[in-house]
Design a protein that fits this description.
Strand content: 5-15%
Low-confidence stretches: none
Strand order of the largest sheet: 2-8-7-6-5-3-4
Order of helices and strands: HHHEHHHEHHEHEHEHEEEHHEEHEEH
Structural class: alpha/beta
Number of strands: 12
Helix content: 40-55%
Bound molecules: pyridoxal-5'-phosphate
CATH superfamily of the domain at 93-342: Type I PLP-dependent aspartate aminotransferase-like (Major domain)
Largest sheet: 7 strands, mixed
CATH architecture of the domain at 93-342: 3-Layer(aba) Sandwich
Radius of gyration: 23 Å
Distance between the termini: 51 Å
């Protein structure tokens, strides 16, 4: 192993230097990767020298998501303390299903979950798990809601005509998961959002009443804390008024921006979160841990067991269920995604996490001010969001993003909302500073669009 660690260290050194010198790569045509990077495998192995050369080449030709010019997705940057934790998780290679196999790593995961539960004022009945991403956290929430509304569903398939609700601006995983849980995508109602991308609670109420009249069973409402395009926060209290009077499960999908719970200044954006039945956030988005790390908590842990536990005598052979996390998780074998978040949290403290979150909003303010004060830009997004959406000089957003990507200048994506398409600039990399934000705009302005 020592030899491989030395190889690792050499390759990472090269990568870190390359990231500084060339933050964005010109993309390699997808059709040529196999040949250019010698991806095919053979019957015989290769020499250690050749192996290191090929591996270095592969790493150096991979898109650089941790640099100062990567703004393409809802993650970016590198929190080194979290990277350290993840590297150690790989070395340890535990599976999180039992205490016997994961030992104190179970305590690491439970610490995170218990702290989050306290932070959102959930009662002692609460519990949670770590899922492999926000989509899977949403799936767990939908399963729990389904099994609460239709307890036979788990054994016999759906026995009731369930319908779920989410805003038109929410993440596609809600609809996708409807297929997974046997509901069918057509049984998710897309509720209208206002011009700022927030779900209209009045439209939700109207739709629920219509469905009740038809004899359908509303079972689940998803409210989003940070919509994928505009970064909008649905009004939780208004939505809760509707769900509570109809006994419907309320889930808060905070995959993108639920981490505002760590910020005294911004947690008001998810005011009312403690009213919800379940809540998730991705530490791999706003908090900058490596992919993936999604925490879901549920107010009444009985639902986690009801929907996720399954007896398996070949697996659960020691200890109480509370320490055998496989009883409350989606998977069987499960990566230790807790350690990287814990190493970060432990090292920089809750205050450090707060700083990470606040920095992103400060950088977004810088970007929004720039766009507002520059006549060549049109702004499409709003305050209190780390998604800054705009167009530049009327250049179609798709063209601008693709031209810059192909030329290896900057990686940024585009999005649409209510018939408008625009560049979606995400200030999620908290290791950036004001100058980096201005450099992004300079990269846009200095490019010669044909
Ligand atoms: C609001 C929201 N929910 C869920 C997800 C899915 O998260 P993941 O990519 O971790 O599955 C995203 C991803 O961007 C998101 O923006």
């Amino acid at each position: 192993m020592q030899k491989e660690l030395a190889v690792f260290s050499r390759i990472v050194d090269r990568l870190l230097t390359a990231e500084q010198q060339e933050p964005v790569l010109s993309p390699m045509p997808a059709k040529s990767i196999e040949k250019q990077l010698h991806l095919s495998v053979q019957q015989e192995g290769i020499t250690t020298e050749k192996f290191e050369e090929l591996l270095t080449n592969l790493v150096l030709n991979t898109p650089r998501t941790s640099t100062k010019l990567f703004f393409n997705q809802l993650f970016g940057g590198r929190q080194s303390k979290a990277v350290l934790g993840d590297l150690l998780a790989v070395m340890l290679n535990n599976s999180m299903y039992t205490y016997k196999v994961a030992g104190p790593q179970v305590g690491v995961e439970k610490t995170i979950i218990n702290e989050v539960i306290k932070m959102i004022d959930y009662p002692e009945t609460a519990n949670g798990t770590i899922a492999s991403g926000g989509s899977m956290s949403n799936l767990i929430a939908m399963l729990m809601a389904r099994d609460k509304a239709d307890p036979d569903a788990r054994y016999k398939g759906l026995t009731k005509k369930l319908v779920g609700y989410t805003s038109e601006a929410s993440h596609y995983s809600i609809t996708k998961n409807a297929a997974f849980i046997g509901l069918g995508t057509e049984n998710i109602r897309k509720i209208k959002a206002n011009d700022k991308g927030k779900m209209l609670a009045s439209a939700l109420e109207t739709q629920i009443n219509e469905d009740l009249l038809k004899g359908l069973v509303p079972f689940f409402v998803n409210a989003t804390a940070g919509t994928t395009v505009l970064g909008a926060f649905d009004p939780i209290r208004e939505i809760y008024d509707v769900t509570s009077s109809n006994n419907i499960w309320l889930h808060i999908d905070g995959a993108y921006c639920g981490s505002v719970i760590f910020s005294k200044k911004y947690k008001h954006l998810i005011d009312g979160v403690s009213l919800a039945d379940s809540f998730n956030f991705n530490a791999h988005k706003m908090l900058g841990t490596p992919l993936t790390c999604s925490i879901i908590v549920v107010k009444d842990k009985a639902h986690l067991y009801d929907s996720l536990s399954m007896e398996a005598s070949y697996l659960y052979q020691t200890n109480e269920d509370d320490f055998n996390l496989g009883k409350t998780s989606l998977q069987c074998g499960r990566r230790n995604d807790a350690l990287k978040f814990w190493t970060l949290w432990k090292a920089i403290g809750t205050n450090g996490l707060e700083q990470i979150v606040d920095t992103q909003f400060e950088l977004a303010d810088v970007a929004r001010d720039y766009v507002k004060n520059h006549p060549d830009y049109t702004l499409y997004s709003y305050d209190n969001s780390i998604s800054v959406c705009f167009n530049y000089k009327g250049i179609p957003a798709q063209k601008l993003c693709t031209d810059l990507y192909e030329a290896g200048k900057v990686m940024v994506g585009f999005g649409s909302f209510k018939e408008q398409t625009f560049i979606r600039f995400i200030t999620i990399n908290a290791t950036n500073n004001k100058e980096d934000i201005l450099n992004f705009f300079a990269a846009i302005e200095n490019f010669n669009y044909q």
